[in-house]
Amino acid sequence: MDIAIIIIYTLALLIIFLYSLAQLNLLFNYLKSRKHSDDSVTFDFSKEEEIPYVTVQLPVYNELYVMDRLLDNIAELEYPKNKLEIQVLDDSTDESVISTATHIKKLQETGLDITHIRRENRVGFKAGALKEGLKIAKGEFFAIFDADFLPGKKWLLQTIPYFKDKKIGVVQTRWGHINRDYSMLTKIQAFALDFHFTMEQVGRNFKDHFINFNGTAGVWRKECIEDAGNWQGDTLTEDLDLSYRAQLKKWKFKYLEEVETPAELPVVISAARSQQFRWNKGAAENFQKLYWKLLKDKTVPLKTKFHSFFHLLNSSMFLLVLLVAVLSVPVMYIKNNNPLFSWYFNVIAFFALSTVIFFFCYWHTFKKIHGKGFWNFLEYIKMFFTFFSIAMGFSVHNSMAVLEGHFGKKSEFVRTPKFNIEALKGSWKENKYINKNISGNTILEAFLMGYFGFALYSAFALQDFGLFLFHIMLFLGFAFVFFKSVTSKF
What dihedral angle (degrees, nearest 10) is formed by the CA atoms of 445, 450, 452, 454? Predict the structure, then answer.
């Protein structure tokens, strides 16, 4: 039994280490990209004949609290009105349908080309709505925004010009966060998303590795969508799915780090859970659907296959982290009760380098957003350990999503509730879309909180503090997720 535990523990640490090396390589790519100027060809919008027709698509479902804000914001986009249409792809089943229709009618009276498109059912969920809108759209290019996004007035003028290069199928922008400082929950979400949208997206895109359209705040070329097989609703992350299919068809993606598109982060843990579940399960589904096809494609460089492997398996790291965490307690007892393994524990100490690599990579993202300096570095240290602690607290929930994705269990596309909260004084308590149920995962999180409390006790009993910091982070992470999950129900 001891040998089996050590083998599984070591393999999990090894894969996490390889993942950290992939992240380190992306950091090197990111740093190299800072030294290169952008020489992309662009449309000259001073010439009317170079201004293409654009369709803005707004896929929405029961967005009572943010629809007015969304529609007013999109109506302010600066673009020639004779070459712009807006599709509100509304699958809603609540009273928001009536207020949305009323608002759209008022905007139509101003001369804006905006239509309210309704379906009889939600077949294909968001993918199905986008595909339905594509059939009747006038545009050559499709800008897509979820209901909680607020693009700046010049957003189309900043993105559309890059499509002069006929090989470019997608232009994606960086997400911003209008309520970053609302709570610790929003701060850690922003911390994680900043890393993805700064280092990962730039690091992959700079070396022509596969990146993903992030479901919103980006533009698609219609020809690219159709050539790649159109939107498909057989995974929970239709954006990642179409992105990989398009790049397998040799379409280029353009990532614009400097164009920020603000959005609202989930402020209650049940909303964050539903979003995390969809993203993590969808990534696993796409790994099963696409990676083997990519692996067999001889035209795709080996390094791109390597990065795509860890990109699609990104969410599966939660499963490995949970495995390492749970096994770390018996490993601690094996270490202290079996002297034969003493050499082994000296060897696996090498894998602590993974944490150093992550610390180094996240710091480069943090200082790009928040700036350098001693006090910012101290704030970063606090955020780094808080983020990883709470991320580990989410590992049970996210691991369940990953397992469902890999084993092909189908589930409904569960939307993330929006709150229209931008200021610290905003409240979510009366939001009608909040899930009030306590899941079985929450009970398991409570058990693991106690389990890692026992691990802290064991450190003193065995006088072995090698994993003490790791176990403190696990205990606090599961405690945070458990108590937030319970208290948000009342």
Answer: -160
Span 194-209, average pLDDT: 97
The CATH H-level (homologous superfamily) assignment of domain 39-266 is Spore Coat Polysaccharide Biosynthesis Protein SpsA; Chain A (3.90.550.10)
Asked if 275 and 438 count as a contact pair (C-beta separation under 8 A), the reply is: no
CA dihedral sign, ordered 106, 112, 113, 117: negative
Q: Which of 90, 148, 194, 239 is catalytic?
A: 239
Rg (CA), the chain: 23
235: which 2 tokens?
């995974």
Sheet with 168-177: list strands edge to edge. Answer: 114-118, 84-90, 54-60, 141-144, 218-221, 168-177, 252-263
Best CA proximity match to 163, nearest among 57, 52, 49: 52
At 454, phi and psi to the nearest 5? -65, -35
**pLDDT tens digits for 400-431?**
999 999 999 887 776 776 666 655 455 445 55
HSE at residue 334, side-chain half, CA atoms within 13 A, is 19
pLDDT at 309 over 70: yes
**Verdict on whether the full-model pTM lies above 0.85:** yes
Would you kindly state where each structural domain of the chain is located, as residue ranges?
Answer: 2-29+315-487, 39-266
Per DSSP, 199 falls in state I
Summarize pLDDT for 432-486 with one digit per residue, the tens: 555 656 677 899 999 999 999 999 999 999 998 989 999 999 999 999 999 988 8
Specify whether 239 is catalytic.
yes
Whether residue 384 has pLDDT greater than 90: yes
- Of 63, 127, 137, 138, the C-alpha closest to 95 is 63
Which of 91, 146, 148, 194 is the catalytic position? 91
Q: Which residues contact 46 (CB under 8 A, 6 or more apart)?
A: none
Share of the chain above pLDDT 90, in %: 83
| Amino acid symbol at 430 | E
Tell me how far apart the alpha carbons of residues 381 and 136 are, in angstroms, rounded to a whole number. 51
Q: Report the pLDDT value the prediction gives residue 428, as an integer from 0 to 100.
A: 45
- What is the helix (H) or strand (E) element at residue 227, kind and residue range? helix 222-227
DSSP annotation string for 66-117: THHHHHHHHHT--S-GGGEEEEEEE---STHHHHHHHHHHHHHTTT--EEEE
Residue 107's identity, in one-letter code, is L
Q: Measure Cα distances from 224 to 149, 404, 434 in Å.
A: 24, 30, 37
- CA dist., res. 217 & res. 263, Å (int): 9
The percentage of the chain sitting over the pLDDT mark of 70, rounded to a whole number, equals 95
For 333-342, the pLDDT digits (tens) are 988 888 777 7
How many whole angstroms separate alpha carbon 312 and alpha carbon 423?
35
SS3 for 36-50 is CCCCCCCCCCCCHHH
What is the Cα–Cα distance from 404 to 402, expressed in whole angstroms?
5
Q: What is the rounded average pLDDT of the residues 212-228?
A: 98
Backbone angles phi, psi at 372, to 5 degrees: -85, -160
